[in-house]
Amino acid sequence: MEAALAANSITVKRSGQTVLNDVSFQVAAGDVYALLGGNGAGKSTTLLTFLGFLSPDTGTVEVLGDDVGANLKDVRLKIAYLPEAATLYPHLNAYENISYFLSLAKATADQGAIDAALDRVSLKEGARSNRLDTYSKGMRQKVAIALALLRDAPVLLLDEPTSGLDPVAIDEFNALVRSLAEEKRTVLMVTHDVYGACQIADRIGLLKDGELVGAFDRPQSGQIDTEQVHAAFAGRSGS
Amino acid sequence: MTTILAIATEEWRLWLRSRVAILALLIVSTIIAATSLLNAQRMAEERDQRMHQQTVTEQTFLEQPDRHPHRMVHYGHYVFRTPPPLSLVDPGVDFVTGQSIFLEGHRQNTPMFADVRASANLGSFQLISPAFVYQVLVPLLLIALGHSVFVRERESRTLAPLLAQGVSGSSLYSGKFLALATLAFTLLLPLLILAVITTFMGEQCVLVASLTLVYAAYLLVWCALIALTSAISPSRGLALGVLVFIWLMWALILPRLAVASAGATVSVPGKLETDFQMYADIRALGDGHNASDPAFARLRANLLAQYDADTVDDLPVNFRGVVAQTSEAELTTLMNEYADRRMHAEQSQSLHIDRFGWLSPAIAISTGSRHLAGTDLANHHRFLREAEEVRFDFVQGLNQSHVEVLSYADDINRNQSAEASQRARISAENWEVLNLFEFAPDPSAERASRSAGSLAQLGLWLVMLLAVGKLASARIRP
Ligand SMILES: Nc1ncnc2c1ncn2[C@@H]1O[C@H](COP(=O)(O)OP(=O)(O)O)[C@@H](O)[C@H]1O
Ligand SMILES: [Mg+2]
Question: Inter-chain contact B161–A53, Cβ cutoff 8 Å?
Fold first, then answer.
């Protein structure tokens, strides 16, 4: 089975510094892949490279078999991206934000569909018609996640999706990601939350200082062993 | 295309919610209303003053009793340049040139309220007119409203979600430009209304349309620049700083540099200096009041030969009149040479300044606007030339009466006695030499074609900035 996402020996420099060094990994279609790493490990950089916002200095990245650099626009339409600390327009309410950003991606959703997505991320109904500048960080994050869901894209790139969410919302979100995998959507999420990653990922890649230093696969039944990942994460990152 | 439209519409939603667009439109409308009222009032005052002067001087002239014809030459009268209706929008050089000239014998007076070195000014920069508002203030307003149009997305981190929806950087640029362009068109509404009003005052529709077009092109140049600067600036503050700097350069510094450069390149000799030289030349021509001046010896000899006469008393024409006529003609030729030289130099300076429009769109619009409004230097110069023709005709008309109606004997004996003086007068019927002078603004085709250069300059700026904007924004990263 062809990989939905592939990074082939990519090296990425930012401002002259090597941020990713010869990183290779693949995400199978319908899998949830969690890229785990400390602050500044290069997690966000990896996602930006898949989006074509950064071009690798060496190596290639592929999305659903397409080279990203060569098919920028097509690739972006196949990806729903949740940026780190996602923000949409503060002067618009949840409905207006979602409709606008969807329209840019040539997608549409009626009020019912938007409500369904906002239900899935459990955004309070009473707040949906308020401007986003009245929202808390977690509520804004939920709107952005709902937008990513409504994009109906085969690939989701999520940058620290649970940051800012309360524990209940995190649990709900983890369940949501598993259901996406069941819908055969491919999810690449980056996080430093070991527990959450182990709960939902089919595979975890451990990123340290721009290098992929370990990988953990989900066993046939159950989930990846948290202790093991935690030890690797804490030990190898030396903090 | 739908994406670009969606982006522009979204910008408008923001403007309308924060009420900035409405506020901006209010500000511009108020200023335009105030400046055009002031301008209209100034024009009305000048018209009243003109009518008053006209009636008074014409009546005085025509009501003169029977007199010696040469005394009438010194009475003189006024001619006026009626400003074209579009000078309500752009008074151009009218602010500094004055529009009425007193015509009399032997002299070419400068227009009243005159600072004749009209070339060395960009008229609309001196006082506030609707043209000044659109050339200088509206761009500043557009900067204030628009500098954040793109960089805002970067600062509030919404650029990533935008681009992630598959929107290209250049579509984003186009959308933001379109939003600014429609805002600029909204701000043009007061000008459009004012321009339409001038059509009821008799202005040609094609000129009104062209004027609106060059102002639209000018504001579009600003929109393209603002969108570009906002797209490539890392922060709002930097975008604002850069734009204000460019505004200072384009609207304030380069126009002054252009004037200084024109002054350095094409020298227009000072008025005192040239007048001094001219009066020396004039003295060499001889005094036309003194028929025995040696300067007229040849004229006398020629006339005597032509009529086969021995003395001037035997001539069938009044020799003193012939001298006055000839002297006026020679004098006029000389004065016209000086005037032509000065106007030519001023025109060269003006053309020199026009060329700075390639460097500053603000200069391009100020030039183009004045050409279209019919308030440019060329128009003023034509007024001076036509007024001079009128002056020459009426003076020579009186001199003709001097030659034909008054006999030489009566003329030279006019100071002998009261009766002799009576005999040296001619009938007041001869005062009907005043030509009705109606100064018409330049024809519309000519005004339009003169403004073509400015339109080309603005067009080039627009195309260039849009191309650079598209290219630069294509590489935008969050
Ligand atoms: N815009 C940027 N320009 C230059 N260097 C950057 C930029 N953003 C991040 N970096 C550097 O790249 C490295 C990886 O950053 P990032 O991918 O954001 O880390 P993570 O998401 O894992 O916390 C860090 O050392 C960071 O300092
Ligand atoms: Mg990050």
Answer: no
From the CA of A37, give the closest atom in ligand 1.
22
Does the beta carbon of A185 sit less than 6 angstroms from any atom of ligand 1?
no
Cα A41 to middle of ligand 2, angstroms: 8
Residue A19 CB–ligand 1 contact under 6 Å: yes
Q: Which residue has the tokens 């999706």?
A: A161
SS3 B113: coil
pLDDT of residue B281: 78
**Distance from the alpha carbon of residue B166 to the mean position of ligand 1, in angstroms:** 23
As assigned by CATH, the class of the A5-233 domain is: alpha beta
Residue B310 resides in a domain: yes
Number of domains present in the structure of chain B: 2
Taking alpha carbons only, the member of A154, A131, A156 closest to residue A143 is A131
Atom 5 (ligand 1) nearest CA: A14
Shortest-distance Cα residue to atom 2 of ligand 1: A14
In a mutagenesis test of the A interface, which of B165, B170, B476 is the best target, namely the one with the most A β-carbons within 10 Å? B165
Asked whether residue B442 is domain-assigned, the answer is: yes
Q: Which domain holds residue B294?
A: 69-121+268-451
Tokens encoding A138? 């977690």
The ligand minimizing its distance to the Cα of A209 is 1
pLDDT band at B122 (very low <50, low <70, confident <90, very high): very low
Look-up of token digits 């200082």:
A209
Rounded to two decimals, the pTM is 0.89
**Per-residue model confidence as pLDDT tens digits over B211-268:** 999 999 999 999 999 999 999 999 999 999 999 999 999 999 999 999 999 888 887 7
Instruction: Mark whether B282 and B229 lie in a shared domain.
Output: no
Contact B156 A90 (CB under 8 A): yes
Does B478 contact A at CB distance below 8 Å?
Answer: yes
Same domain, yes or no, for B340 and B325?
Answer: yes
The β-bridge relationship of strands A79-82 and A66-67 is: unpaired
Q: Residue A91 and residue B18: Cβ atoms within 8 Å?
A: yes
B418-454 burial code (b ≥16 CB/10 A, e <16) = eeeeebbbbeeebbebbeebebebbebeebbebbebb
d(C-alpha B310, C-alpha B406), whole Å: 20
> For residue B284, which phi and psi values (nearest 5 degrees)?
-65, -25
Nearest to B6 among A77, A87, A104 (CB): A104
Whether residue B7 and residue A92 make contact (CB cut-off 8 A), yes or no, is no
Report CB contact under 8 Å: A88, B167. Answer: no
| Domain ranges across chain A | 5-233
Q: Is the distance from the beta carbon of residue A91 to the nearest atom of ligand 1 less than 6 Å? A: no
**B63, part of any domain:** no
Q: Is B137 among the domain residues?
A: yes
**Cα–Cα nearest to B222, from B151, B125, B137, B159:** B137
Do B39 and B74 belong together in one domain? no
ipTM for this prediction: 0.92
The verdict on B316 touching A (C-beta cutoff 8 Å) is no
Radius of gyration of chain B (CA): 30
Do residues B286 and B253 both lie within one domain? Answer: no
Name the residue among B17, B156, B165 with its Cβ closest to that of A104: B165
- Over the stretch B180-222, which tens digit does the pLDDT of each residue have? 999 999 999 888 988 888 888 888 889 999 999 999 999 999 9
- Token output for B184: 């600029």
- Nearest-CA residue for ligand 1 atom 18 is A44
Looking at the complex, report in whole angstroms how far the Cα of residue A102 sits from the nearest Cα belonging to chain B.
7
Q: How many CA atoms lie within 13 A of B65 on its CB side?
A: 3
Give the pair of three-digit tokens for residue B332.
């006029």
Assign 3-class secondary structure to A62-114. EECCEECCCCHHHHHHHEEEECCCCCCCCCCEHHHHHHHHHHHCCCCCCHHHH
Residue in chain B lying closest to A153 (CA) = B165
Tokens linked to B244:
């204000």
